[in-house]
Amino acid sequence: MRFYTALVHQDENSAYGLTFPDLPGCFAAADDWDGIPAAVTEALDLWFEDAQDVAPASLEQLRQRSDITEALAAGAVLLRVPYVPADTAVERVNITLERGLLHAIDTTAKERGMTRSSFLAMAARHQLTGA
C-alpha cells in the first residue's frame, strides 16, 4: 500500500475536486467529503491501468512546489490518501478468528450473497482506504 497526496479544492456550492500532484492527469470529484475515499480509489485504479508505477513525493517536496503553494493559498488542502493497487491475482491464506466473529462474518456474507473471502476482502479494503 502506498500513500499519495491529493490536492482537494472546492468552489462555493460545488463538488470537491481532487488532483494528484504526483500523477499528471489523474483527477477525481466527490459530491461531499464522505465521498472522497471512493472517488480517490476509482481515480487511482483508472490512472494506474495505463501508467507505470510512480513513487509518491514527500509532503516536504510538494510544499516546495509553487503550484501547490498557490493552490493552498487559494483555499485548497492537501490530503494523504492510501492506495491499494487493484490486483486480481488471489492468494490463499490461513487466518485465525474468534468463533463468534467467524459466525457473524459467514452469516452476513451469506445474507449479502458473498463468499467469506469476498466479504473479508471488502471489509479489509474499507478499513484500509475508506472506500
Could you please describe the fold and organization of this structure?
Helices cover 42% and strands 18% of the residues. The protein is an alpha+beta fold and 131 residues long. The protein has a four-stranded antiparallel beta sheet with strand order 3-2-1-4. Helix 4 (99-111) packs across helix 5 (116-129). The model has no long low-confidence stretch (mean pLDDT 90).
Keyword list:
131 residues; alpha+beta; 5 helices; elongated
Helix and strand content put the structural class at: alpha+beta
Radius of gyration from the alpha-carbon trace, in angstroms = 18 Å
Runs with pLDDT <50, length 5+?
A: none
Whole-number mean pLDDT: 90
Helix content: 40-55%
Shape: elongated
* Total helical elements: 5
| Order of adjacent strands in the largest pleated sheet | 3-2-1-4
Main beta-sheet strand count, sense and barrel state? 4 strands, antiparallel
Strand content: 15-25%
What string gives the helices and strands in order?
Answer: EEEHHHEHH
Q: How many individual β-strands?
A: 4
- State the end-to-end CA separation: 14 Å
